[in-house]
Amino acid sequence: MVGGIALAAVGACFTCCVICGYKHVKSAIEVIDASADFANDNKRVIVVPVVYFVIMVITFFVWLYSFACVVSLNPITSEPDSMIPQNRNIHWSG
């Protein structure tokens, strides 16, 4: 019973806040509606970030492949270690 009364009080406070701030809520709804219309009319807003992301992923994989090629030019030695059994060292040469 106490929980129901507490939830009813919270609901009444929330309703009062919405009614008192109706002007701001209506303004926010209009802003969201205008931005949705803009996004619907200008497909570039959606396409450009996706294309940029794809280009960046391709660039990253090209860089990763290049890095692996540069690392493979140097000798890799294995030094036994009790803490890290798969320890490898790369001896960088100029």
Describe this structure in words.
With 94 residues, the chain is mainly alpha-helical. 72% of the residues lie in helices and 6% in strands. It has 3 helices and 2 strands. The longest helix has 29 residues, at 44-72.
Give the SSE map.
Layout: H1 2-20, H2 22-41, H3 44-72, E1 76-78, E2 88-90
Antiparallel strand pairs: 1-2
Q: What is the overall silhouette?
A: elongated
CA-based gyration radius: 30 Å
Please state roughly what percent of the residues sit in beta strands, choosing from under 5%, 5-15%, 15-25%, 25-35%, 35-45% or over 45%: 5-15%
Helix content: over 70%
Order of helices and strands: HHHEE
**E-strand count:** 2
Helix/strand-derived category reads: mainly alpha
Mean pLDDT: 87
Number of separate helices? 3
Strand adjacency order, main sheet: 1-2
The unreliable regions are: none
Roughly how many Å apart are the termini? 79 Å
* Biggest sheet architecture: 2 strands, antiparallel
